[in-house]
Design brief:
The structure is a homodimer of 444-residue chains. Chain A has 444 residues and is α+β, with helices and mostly antiparallel strands. Chain A contains 16 helices and 14 strands. In chain A, a hairpin with a 2-residue loop joins strand 13 and strand 14. In chain A, helix 1 packs parallel to helix 3, helix 4 runs parallel beside helix 9 and helix 5 packs across helix 12.
Chain lengths: 444, 444
């Protein structure tokens, strides 16, 4: 196979057969297709598109490039959640312990920060000692022992996808629906799930900015799941402002711990419960949304969810005492308030400048090999629609030094708008997409 | 600068400013933009296009990435020829000695085989000892001593272009007019020329297959030359069949030597003289095409051209005795005739299967790092329109072993069509493009 033939076909807007997808992805995983050939191919895919069958073939080829978790012996439903990525989105850190404390196995494989969005692995690694690089054997043992594992994509799972994901980030080819859908689903299908819940972000902080594209992504993933007898339910959730208050790795981990202890911000809890309800329903724990919601709230109130997070942290080499004392998380050298320049109504808290701001402070990556500083970021205590007085603190900036504080201030100047009036924000959860189609979301 | 910004701009069909082109190409030459980022960028350029100003800015940026030959002290016109690449195209090996024997300095920088086309450097290196990797200092000394040099693109000349050219070959992004024009012109302008003649190939063996594209390429390069006070004349020549008879490195070098000694195939001589006439006119040796043609024929007849090739070979470390005794060139282990399967008229000798056939026999590259076997290839003794009998030899196959002979036979089965009648071939030279515009070509 000459890789240029496949590249030229996609370049010219032709479709590849399933066998051609298999051959091209296998050759890439084997190093016979170079990174620079793959990135030209990905740009051609980005600009020319993939049809439904090609997307399925790409998903299958990436899935086949690695191993799969075989978890049937757990004897429990195995449900995961995946988010398309947002700012302040620490839902996974809350949801995995919470749902797994209710008898559902959660084999959660997450990613790192990408573009303006944070990554679950980076947040978990803010916990001293926490290891996200487990082998499949270790992950399986943890699932057997405590019903949950929070790991990175190992070398064994969809290695072709892992390499492509890093390339796409570096080559401005992230925002393509078939590539996003195939990337997510190849990893998730390798987890041996019996169901998957997707959190598809909406609004200016989402990778895909327009509602049609978001719904198409959700429907594509529902359909890819159906191909593999893995029922998928997607919720569209708001990313026109950060979720919760904290943005930055250790800050978000702290907020997730607060949420597990019953003290999370209302918007974070709403989204977490909405996704958790779908997970419990897919797991067959209960068919009733109201019942599912009460179980979730109960697990928080009883301390079961927080206790489960401690067990996960301990199993993965971290210091479980952070759950009782979040001050054990690494702390920024400098912290200053950001105050309202005028009185008025908060008209916008823009996620992208916040997300890029975290990166600028040292808390995100511009290259895959960059290391991240877990301590830096923002805690933004106002939401769009809030009335504020001049000089009122709106946020705290956490930075390494005075220059970081100044950079953070500039980011907030760009992100936070105060005006005389504000448009209403997006509903926290707006649509539910399943094999039954697209429905408006109705909260439990 | 984040390379992804420039990639995303091109991806979205926006234009880059001259300063953005400079910054992106400079960062690539410095290794700050990776190969995989550049190849995604090149695919976006391929699919979205570059406007006239962007093409000029890219040319300038690639030119600025390296050094230039300063040859004003030669006190002679400095004219080069460049071909867009074909099969059997050994014109440079004939033209450079021929024109430089008439008092024109020819600082010729050539390339290697690319796709189905051969490369002048590979052909020259079939001569035992011939060095094409000269420093600019060595090349300048050779020009001072004998008025010609035949070299590869050194690390000093347009290094950004050199890296991009290799990437484009590997990523199916060769056939884009602005990229081709900028690549050629950045190298040629670095040669310090007072004029340039372009051989733009037409027909199914050309990189650009359609006449509009070929004319646009010619006009783009004429215009880029004018930006730098380097007059450019382009001739469109036939590549619906190989040029001459020999295809393969040593075989073509042997044919070029025969041509210099007055025994070249008629089509090769026609194209060589047509380009040579333009070179002598641009050099100001004579304004009259007929006079120019007679001078060229005279230099072949007198042995001046062949003697000049000997001097060039000697200056570059090769064995000059090959000019008197081409049997000193490396010889293939196996040689067999290919005969006509039926009587009829030769309807096609398709260049692409011939060119890819040379590669398949080991005489070309599928990866930049591949080494080539100079001995293999074809000598095809018929031309489209020739009447042939069943069993008549049409070609000789030169190969390393019996398997190569069989592969060569399969290539010729694909390349050579015999039918009851044949369409007329393309005229050898059809159009002349200069600042005056596009004209039909009138032979001297």
């Amino acid at each position: 196979m000459d890789p240029r033939d496949a590249i030229a076909q996609k370049r010219d807007g032709k479709r590849l057969t399933a066998a051609e997808w298999q051959a091209f992805i296998r050759a890439y995983a084997a190093g016979e297709v170079t990174d620079y050939q793959m990135s030209a191919f990905l740009m051609a895919c980005f600009l020319r598109g993939l049809d439904r069958e090609e997307t399925a073939a790409l998903t299958q080829a990436m899935l086949d490039s690695g191993r799969r978790l075989d978890l049937a012996h757990l004897g429990r439903p195995r449900i995961d959640k995946h988010s398309t990525g947002g700012v302040g989105d620490k839902v996974s850190l809350v949801l995995a312990p919470l749902v797994s404390s209710l008898g559902v196995a959660v084999p959660m494989m997450s990613g790192r920060g990408l573009g303006h969005t944070g990554g679950t692995l980076d947040k978990l690694e803010a916990i001293p000692g926490f290891r996200t690089r487990l082998s499949l054997r270790e992950a399986t043992a943890e699932l057997e022992a405590i019903g949950c594992t929070l790991i990175g994509q190992t070398d064994e799972i969809a290695p072709a996808d892992r390499k492509m994901y890093a390339l796409r980030d570096a080559t401005a080819t992230v925002e393509a629906i078939p590539l996003i859908a195939a990337s997510i689903m190849s990893k998730k299908l390798a987890e041996g799930l019996t169901g998957l819940v997707l959190d598809v972000k909406r609004g200016p902080g989402a990778f895909l900015r327009d509602l049609d594209a978001q719904l198409e992504l959700a429907q594509t993933m529902v359909s890819l799941g159906a191909d593999h007898e893995c029922p998928v339910v997607a919720l569209l959730t708001a990313m026109d402002r950060p979720l919760g208050r904290a943005c930055g790795n250790a800050l978000e981990t702290e907020e997730a711990i607060q949420a597990l202890r019953g003290d999370g911000p209302p918007d974070l809890m709403e989204v977490t419960y909405a996704l958790g309800v779908e997970m419990l329903r897919l797991a067959g724990i209960t068919a009733d949304a109201g019942d599912a919601r009460r179980r979730l709230e109960g697990a928080v109130a009883s301390g079961a969810a927080a206790g489960q997070f401690q067990r996960i942290i301990e199993a993965q080499g971290g210091n479980p005492a952070v759950v009782d004392d979040p001050a054990l998380l690494p702390q920024a050298a400098e912290c200053e308030f950001y105050t309202a320049p005028r009185a008025g109504v908060v008209a916008a808290v823009r996620p992208r400048p916040i997300g890029y701001g975290v990166t600028r402070l040292g808390g995100g990556r511009t290259k895959t090999a960059d290391s991240v500083d877990p301590t830096v970021g923002f805690v933004i205590t106002v939401k769009p629609g809030d009335r504020v007085e001049a000089g009122q603190p709106l946020a705290s900036i956490y930075a390494r030094d005075a220059r970081g504080i100044a950079d953070g201030r500039a980011c907030l100047d760009e992100a936070v708008a105060i005006a005389d009036a504000a448009e209403p924000p997006l509903p926290l959860v707006s649509h539910r997409v399943s094999r039954a189609g697209v429905e408006p979301y109705a909260a439990a």
